[in-house]
Amino acid sequence: MRKFQTDSLDVKIIELLEDNCSLGYREVADKLGKNIWNIRDRIIHLKEKGIIKACRAEINYVEMGLGCRALISLNVPAENIDRFISFVRSNEMFKRLTITTGMRRFHIEAVGKECNMVRLYAMKTFPEFKVQDVEFEVILDTPL
User: Fold this and answer.
1) Which phi and psi angles does 103 have, rounded to 5°?
2) Which pLDDT does position 6 carry in this prediction?
3) Would you write out the chain's pLDDT as a tens digit for each of its 144 residues?
4) In what order do the strands lie in the sheet with 68-75?
5) How far apart are CA 140 and CA 123, in angstroms?
6) What residue ranges do the domains of the chain occupy?
7) CATH 1.10.20 fits 8-48, yes or no
8) What pLDDT does 142 receive?
9) Under 8 Å CB-to-CB from 29, ≥6 apart: which residues?
10) CATH for the 61-138 domain, from 3.30.70.920, 3.65.10.10, 1.10.533.10, 1.10.3720.10
């Protein structure tokens, strides 16, 4: 079986949806000057192949009264990783978990009313997982 390869139309569709994932088939078709059924079939195929996984809203937390966005970087001992990931995923304060290589492997985006509240919560709950090398940074802006 041949490996799926995106073409230039797929890339244009992906770029439009990256910019505004709420666009409907007709809007994408109109913007690209293509047939709506062709666009629909392409988007369905991109979803089936796992290239388009989800559509997410970009949230303005300040407008919700949550004035602090923080990035918490840390390490977790191997024996606690699964429990820690489960804890982060189940907690409404933590919006994104990214695992990377490097000195600090776990990066959590957290939101709260005040940064001190987020920091105190992390200081209270993280010791249970024996986290190490914790670094707390306030996110001032997220440019592209």
Assistant:
1) -65, -45
2) 92
3) 667 789 999 999 999 999 999 999 999 999 999 999 999 999 999 999 999 999 988 888 889 999 999 999 999 999 999 999 999 999 999 999 999 998 899 999 999 999 999 999 999 999 999 999 999 999 887 665
4) 94-99, 106-112, 68-75, 132-138
5) 21
6) 8-48, 61-138
7) no
8) 67
9) 35, 36, 38, 39
10) 3.30.70.920
Q: Give buried/exposed letters for 21-53 (b at 16+ CB in 10 A, else e).
A: eebebeebbeeeeeeeeebeebbeebeeeeebe
Burial call 122-137: b when 16+ CB within 10 Å, e when fewer: beeebeebebeebebe
Amino acid (1-letter code) at residue 118: V
